[in-house]
Each structure stands twice: as structure tokens, then as C-alpha cells.
Amino acid sequence: MQKKEIRKITTETKQNTKDDVKAFWNRNVCLTKFIKGEKKGTKEYFQEGEKIRYKYHYYLQHLFDKIAQEYPNGKLLEIGCGIGTDLREFARRGMQVTGVDLTENAINYTKQHLEAFNLKGKLIVSDAEKLPFKDNTFDVVYSFGVLHHTPNTQKAINEVHRVLKSSGKAVIMLYHKISLNYAAHRILDVPFDGSRKDRCPVERAYTKEDIRTMFERYNSVDIKIDYLFGTGWKFANAIMPKFLHRALGKKIGWHIVIEGKK
User: Fold this and answer.
1) How buried is residue 203: exposed, middle or buried, by Cβ count under 10 Å (0-12/13-18/19+)?
2) What is the pLDDT of residue 156?
3) What does the pLDDT look like over 16-49, one tens digit per residue?
4) N or C: at which end does the chain have fewer Cβ atoms within 10 angstroms?
5) H or E segment to which residue 83 belongs
6) How far apart are CA 111 and CA 113, in angstroms?
């Protein structure tokens, strides 16, 4: 059967390399630009990051509970752990956690984060397209808003499938092309991540049809849409009633949350 072409939106050029991506995220470790007034690396710093993250990413705590209940004490890999906010949530729910990130800065933050809360986890600087694990290692592979930033997203998704155990689950968030946030960014010429002066080298958005093709190796794939506006749209988030924000998020939201069963 002939493969369908994946229609993707990307700012990358032929000159963009994985080194460019790594350098960008070393400068812009996820969430750090939003945390103010606390000393970096302290428990208070990470608690402030937690408040910010889950205020806007309101559906994540429910998702964490669901995963931990489905795979109690399971082995979980997070690809792109950032400062470790989500990885801590899985660890405190009793899961055996491993975090990988392309950047040394992120791994250092996550190490400090877990230590601040007396939690354990394995942390490795690693490329999502070439994971340093044997086949069939993890019960769950979780990656939130990361794989659309690697030069070969499909290769990374295939790696996720490889390291999952039989009947294991991939839980992946990618950006949604058919969304209000996507349209706003394009109209205003604002990059999805970074700034006009320091743009993320690789960023993509996909349709549901694209996702089904990309995850065709999986035995079952569940797709949900959520999260109407990005964290940066403070005014829009402030004036819109919460019920309307969440209802529209499920129709034209920025996040495609994929649960793929191997």
C-alpha cells in the first residue's frame, strides 16, 4: 500500500540541524521563562513551575492518574523531560521513571527537581530519534509537546514503538494544525515556541489524518483534542469563561493527545 504524504507545517530550512535544535532548547528550557521570583533549582522554584504548568494544562493531572492506574508501578519513559515537572508527577504516583532530553540543561534541572522532592529516576541526555534502550523496555512512553521539534518526527515515533513492551502504551502530544492557536500564530507571525528574535528551528503541526498515518504501526490509536490557547495568550485566557475555553478546546484546540497501544 502506498504511504500517504504527511502534510506538515514547519519553519525549518535545509540549514537547520539537530545541533540547532539542541542549542535552542539549551537556551530555552521549557517553562523556565515563566517562573519568576524563586531561586533556580530550589523546591520553591519547581513548585512555582508546577502551578503555572497545571493552571494552563488543566487536563494533565487526570491523564497522569489514568496512566498510573493502568500501569501501577510500571516502567515509564519521558522523552523531553524539560525541568522534570511531569516526570515528578509520575514518580510520586509510584511509577519507575526514566527521563531523557536532548539538552544537558534540562537533565540538570530534572535531577535537581527530583532530588528536591526526594524522588528517584534515571536521567539521560539522549536523542529521541535514537533512544539508548533495548526493544520492549517500557510499559509507557510519554512525550508532551516534544517530538514535533525533532528533525525526523516519524523516526522518533518509530523509536517509541520499538522501546515499548507488548501491550505498552505511547502517550504523545503534538501540535494541531486545525486549531485557533495555529491560526493566530500564523496571522501574527509569532513562532509556536521562542520569539521572533529567537525562533525555534523546527516546529510542526499536524492534522488527525496525519496522526493516523504516523501511528499506523500501533494496534490501536485514540486521538483527543484539547487546550484552546497557548500559555502566552494571557489576555485571551483571562477574558474567556472557563467552560467556553474548555469546550472550544475539545474542537479546535492546540494539542493533539495520542494514546497508541502497541
Assistant:
1) buried
2) 98
3) 689 999 999 999 999 999 999 899 999 999 999 9
4) N
5) none
6) 5
Lateral strand order in the sheet of 96-101? 122-125, 96-101, 75-79, 138-144, 164-175, 255-261, 220-226
Look at residue 4 and tell me if it is in a domain.
no
Comparing C-alpha atoms, which of 100, 105, 125, 85 is closest to residue 23? 105
Q: Residue 176 falls within a domain, yes or no?
A: yes
Residue 201 lies in a domain: yes
The C-alpha cell 540549514 sits at 15
Q: Is the pLDDT of residue 197 over 80?
A: no
Cell of 261: 497501544
| Residue 136 C-beta-side C-alpha neighbours within 13 Å | 2
Secondary structure letter of residue 86 according to DSSP: H
Structurally, how many domains does the chain consist of?
A: 1
Element holding 24 (H helix, E strand) = helix 18-27
- What is the per-residue pLDDT for 172? 99
- Tens digits of residue pLDDT in 80-131: 999 999 999 999 999 999 999 999 999 999 999 999 999 999 999 999 999 9
The answer to whether position 220 is within a domain reads yes
Phi-psi region of 194 (alpha: psi -120 to 50; beta: other; left: phi over 0): left
d(CA 193, CA 248): 22
Q: Say which residue the cell 525541568 belongs to.
A: 83
Question: Residue 195, Cβ neighbours under 10 Å: how many?
Answer: 12
